[in-house]
C-alpha cells in the first residue's frame, strides 16, 4: 500500500507544480491610464498596470515600425476576453495578446507615437501582485527602440481564438438611486443627496445602455420608493447585479472618497451604523420583517444562497475599486467595507452599495456637481460592470459540470 501511495504522489506531483506555476491576468486590476498631458504635439505619458494572481518572470521593451510596447510574461493565462476590452484600450491604436512560445505569453500594445520606458517594476509585497510600466513620449530623434526589432517581432501572437462571450444585452443591471421624494437623504452646501444620485444614475444608465447592457431603474424621478420595493423591482426585472448609489454625510473628518459597501449582518462599525440609521429610517425599515419572523429553514436557505452571491458581490467590489484606483478616482482609506444596509439584504442577486463620495466633504461635493468628474466616474463604473460580467461568464464556464 505504501508503494501504491508513493506512486500516486509521484504521478500527481508534477501536475500540482504546474498548477501552482500558472498565473492569471486580473482584468479588474489591469489597464492603461494617462499620467499627464501631451505637450508640443506629443502624445500623453501612459502607465500600464497588469494585475496578476501571482508574481511571474517578465520582460518589457519597445520596437519600431510602428512603435509598440512588448510585454512577455512567463506562465500567464489571459481571461476570456480580448485586449480591446482592457481598461484604457481606447488610449492606444491597438492591443492584442496570446501565447507565442511554450510557457510564455505576450502582450503587444501599439503606441500612438514614439515612447521610451521610463520605469518598469513588479509589486510582489502584498496579495495583489502587479507589473507597472511607465511610458514617456519622446521625439523621433530620441526614439531608441530595441535594436533586434526583427527578432522581437517574430512569432507575435495571432488574435486569440476565443469563444464569443455572452452579448452584453443579456446582462441586466438594476441601478438604485438612494432616497427620493419626501426623503432627500443627506443635505449640504445647498445640494440634496437624492437629486445628485438620481442625475448620476441617469448618466450611468446611458453609458451602460451604450455598451448593450439592459438597465432597470428603481426610481427615475424625485419620488419615494420603499426599500423592499427597490429589491422587488430588481428581482422582477431579472437583474444580474444590484447597485445602490448614495452620496451620504458623516461628521466632519470621518469620511471622504468613494466607498463600496457589501452585506454583513454582523457589521458594527460606527460609521456603518450611522449610515444605516440614515438609509433605514423608521418608515424605510424593509429588512426588519425578515428578522425574528423567518424560521430557521428560511434563514439557512438565505445563507446558502449567499454562498454563491456574496463572492460574486465581492468580485464586483474588487473590479470597481481596482478600476477607480487605476483611473485616479479618490477612494476612502478603506474602499471596501461591510454594513447591514437593507438594500443589500437580497440573497439571490449580487449587490453592492456605492457611496460616490460624501456630500459632507467639500472636495467630494465639488466632484459630485462637476460634469467632468461625473463623466470619468460613470465611465469607470460602466467598464467595471461589463468587465465583471465577462469575468463572471468566464468563471462560470470553468466550473465543473
From TrEMBL:
Enzyme Commission no: 3.5.1.28
SMART domains, alphabetized: Ami_3
Broadest EC class assigned to this enzyme: hydrolase
Catalytic activity: Hydrolyzes the link between N-acetylmuramoyl residues and L-amino acid residues in certain cell-wall glycopeptides
The organism's place on the tree of life at top rank: Bacteria
InterPro entries from the UniProt entry: AMIN_dom, MurNAc-LAA_cat, N-acetylmuramoyl_amidase_3
Matching SUPFAM superfamilies: Zn-dependent exopeptidases (SSF53187)
Keywords: Hydrolase, Signal
Record protein name field: N-acetylmuramoyl-L-alanine amidase
Organism: Paracoccus onchidii
Taxonomic placement: Bacteria, Pseudomonadati, Pseudomonadota, Alphaproteobacteria, Rhodobacterales
